[in-house]
């Protein structure tokens, strides 16, 4: 059974009979796994700003954002997957570390893609006597094992993918990056009971959490591996998982850019400024059929946060005009999901615009005299509006025409058809997106 409650049959995406939504002639077809482009139209890498969503429809309109400060950010798995850490307090991983005795040698390794090396907590306990940090604009290394030892790095840590190794042998602690020694401290003989990876929040400190993508953490004590965490062992966006050495790893999340296990591509919008816009090749006067696969983050972002809406190029405000249609949006400051037309929220799904729901599939049919909306192929809401006024040339992802209405979301896919679909074809689209979101 799939995430959205539908079995994946042989006619909707199996290797024996593959299905491509482009065969049903959408006008917009965006998928994070193959549509995210950075500046210069190169495929966006992990944490790149996305200037363009490439419309998979041949010759169709792309969605773009020329202002870098308003561009959403790509999340792409590093290897088989990683833990994204945004260097914001409250975002970290916690686990029951094995205790390190005062006389015991140990090796702590972190395989990480560092975004910022100026300061970071590698690991920490419940107070300042138990932490390993880099600080002072990346010039200082401090190892607190029931006591404090501080040294100066021979050269700054490098950003990008590397292995950070902190090891103690006979009281001498060495910090290395990819085998290159960065700092050596002597006479470090204290014990430690670490509890967290990256966290700076158990005590007062000016040193930030780690910023970047964490792939793996291992700890060997006295020559025996006691902890082995591979974040690709966790499900996509999971809150907890069991690592290979048996400990439970908890992902602690905070804000609209939360720590996240990343095992498939998504596009993150920040809930206050990020957006993408475009212009249809021709006016949409018929409505049609819409699908979006996304999840909500943090406080959900701004009031009436738009997932996707379209309006007439002749209307400055646009979205309250009968010529416009808002296919998917938050109902004001509630946790409800809806569609919107002519000054009114319609088809309201109570409580669905909330991070607790995980990845959802919002499906909307909107043609003259017949509209309905479903979430995960359930909770049917319908109306019978007269949509003969529709005439929309402009479209917006994650904002309204005034630049507000920004949701805090992770977008995985969006499809819009300017015609209706049969029940069988709608099921194929649903199952296709369902399967894409159920890989991990």
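-> sequence recovered:
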């Amino acid at each position: 059974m799939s995430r959205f409650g539908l079995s994946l049959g042989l006619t909707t995406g199996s290797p024996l009979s593959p299905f491509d939504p482009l065969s049903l002639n959408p006008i917009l077809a965006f998928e994070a796994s193959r549509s995210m482009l950075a500046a210069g139209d190169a495929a966006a890498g992990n944490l790149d700003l996305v200037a363009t969503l490439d419309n998979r429809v041949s010759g169709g309109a792309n969605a773009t954002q020329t202002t870098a400060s308003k561009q959403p950010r790509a999340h792409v798995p590093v290897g088989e997957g990683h833990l994204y850490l945004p260097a914001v307090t409250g975002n970290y991983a916690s686990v029951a570390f094995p205790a390190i005795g005062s006389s015991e040698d140990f090796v702590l390794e972190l395989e990480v893609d560092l975004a910022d090396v100026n300061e970071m907590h590698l690991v920490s306990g419940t107070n300042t006597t138990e932490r390993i940090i880099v600080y002072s604009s990346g010039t200082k290394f401090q190892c607190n094992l029931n006591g404090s030892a501080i040294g100066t790095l021979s050269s700054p840590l490098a950003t990008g993918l590397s292995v950070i190794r902190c090891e103690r042998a006979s009281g001498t602690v060495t910090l290395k990056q990819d085998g290159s020694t960065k700092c050596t401290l002597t006479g470090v003989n204290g014990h430690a009971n670490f509890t967290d990876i990256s966290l700076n929040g158990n005590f007062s400190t000016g040193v930030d959490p780690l910023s970047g993508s964490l792939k793996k953490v291992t700890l060997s004590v006295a020559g025996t591996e006691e902890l082995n965490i591979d974040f690709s062992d966790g499900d996509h966006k999971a809150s907890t998982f069991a690592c290979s050495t048996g400990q439970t790893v908890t992902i602690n999340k905070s804000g609209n850019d939360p720590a996240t296990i990343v095992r498939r591509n998504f596009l993150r919008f920040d809930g206050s400024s990020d957006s993408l816009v475009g212009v249809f090749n021709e006016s949409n006067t018929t409505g049609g059929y819409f699908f979006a696969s996304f999840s909500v983050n943090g406080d959900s972002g701004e009031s009436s946060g738009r997932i996707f809406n379209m309006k007439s190029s002749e209307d400055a405000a646009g979205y309250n005009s009968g010529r416009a249609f808002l296919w998917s949006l938050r109902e004001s400051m509630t946790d409800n999901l809806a569609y919107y037309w002519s000054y009114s929220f319609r088809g309201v799904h109570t409580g669905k615009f909330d991070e607790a729901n995980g990845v959802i599939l919002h499906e909307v049919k909107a043609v003259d005299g017949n509209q309905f909306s479903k979430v995960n192929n359930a909770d049917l809401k319908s109306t019978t509006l007269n949509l003969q006024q529709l005439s929309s040339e402009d479209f917006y992802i994650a904002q309204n025409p005034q630049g507000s209405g920004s949701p805090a979301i992770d977008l995985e896919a969006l499809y819009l058809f300017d015609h209706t679909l049969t029940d069988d074809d709608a099921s194929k689209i649903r199952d296709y997106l369902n399967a894409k979101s159920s890989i991990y």
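Confidence is low (pLDDT under 50) at residues 1-17.
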